[in-house]
Structure formats: C-alpha cells, structure tokens
Design a protein that fits this description.
Layout lengths: L4 E9 L2 E6 L2 E8 L2 H16 L8 E6 L4 H37 L5 H8 L3 H10 L3
Parallel strand pairs: 1-4
Antiparallel strand pairs: 1-2, 2-3
Helix pairs in contact: 2-3, 2-4, 3-4
C-alpha cells in the first residue's frame, strides 16, 4: 500500500468533471458526475502506480473554481456528518445495553423501556432478543 497522499484536482467544464492528479499530471480523466470522475481517477492512478487495490490510495479532493469559504463549508459538512454517524452508532450501542438491562435486570416491560428510551416497543423486543444469540 502506498503511504503517499495524492491530490485530485477537479474542475467542472462543459457538463463534465475533469480531474487530474497534481503530483502526477500524466494521470487525468473525466466523468459526467463527480462520483464517476472520482472513481475514474482512483482507477487511473492505481494503474499508473501499478497498485493492486486502488481503494487503498490516499487521495484528497481539491475543487478548482469553488470559493475557498465554500470549500470550507463542504469540508465542515462532511466532518459533521462523520461525527453524527459516530454519535448515532454510540446511541445505538447504549440503547441496546439499556434495553437489555432494563428488561432483564430491572424487570420493566418492553413498552415502558421503549417510552424511556424513545424508540418503539418492537425495537426494544428486537434488542432484547437479539442479545440472546
């Protein structure tokens, strides 16, 4: 696996995303959508570097023609979504632990536990019984 970080510089022209690797200008491609361009540049760089698995490459995205303050907003939005996903996963773990203990150790009904935890009683039932496996 390559430990070097590469920069993919994207620009939107005539309905296509053009992209090149700034460190290796010979590696460039395009896509009709940003996602396609991102996938194509990863594959192209992987071929250039002869990397078996291009998904292991460390590629940072850089958007040409987008105001710096807007790039910061996009980056912060992505970081916020990642943090929200982490918090959601933690909330799910804690909900499962609390549900099992409230039903088994304290003896509350699934409906009462659901009310306490703010989820459906069906979800509490799933959490309690999936813990048996």
């Amino acid at each position: 696996m390559s430990t070097k970080r590469y920069t993919a510089r994207y620009s939107f022209e005539d309905g296509n995303w053009l992209v090149e690797i700034t460190e290796v200008p010979q590696v460039h491609t395009f896509g009709r959508t940003f996602g396609k361009a991102r996938a194509h540049i990863r594959d192209a760089l992987g071929l250039w570097l002869r990397v078996e698995d291009p998904s292991t490459l460390d590629i940072a995205d850089e958007l040409a023609g987008v105001p710096v303050d807007l790039v910061s907003v996009v980056a912060e939005a992505g970081q916020s979504r990642a943090r929200a996903n982490e918090l959601s996963a933690r909330a799910q773990q804690l909900t499962a632990v609390a549900a099992r203990r409230l039903v088994r150790d304290v003896g509350l009904s699934t409906r009462d536990v659901a009310e306490l935890l703010g989820v459906s009683h069906q979800r509490i039932h799933q959490l309690v019984h999936n813990g048996d496996r």
